[in-house]
Amino acid sequence: MQIEGTTALVTGGGSGLGEATARLLASRGAHVGVFDRNGEAAARVAGDIGGVALTGDVTSEADASRAIAALADQKGPVRILVNCAGIGTAKRIVGREGAMPLADFERVIRVNLIGTFNMLRLASAHMAEQDPVADNARGVIVNTASVAAFDGQIGQAAYAASKGGITSLALPAARELARFGIRVNTIAPGIFLTPLLAELPDEAQQSLAASIPCPARLGDPAEFADAVRFVITNGYINGEVIRLDGGVRLQPK
Question: Coiled-coil regions in this chain (predicted)?
Answer without folding.
Answer: none
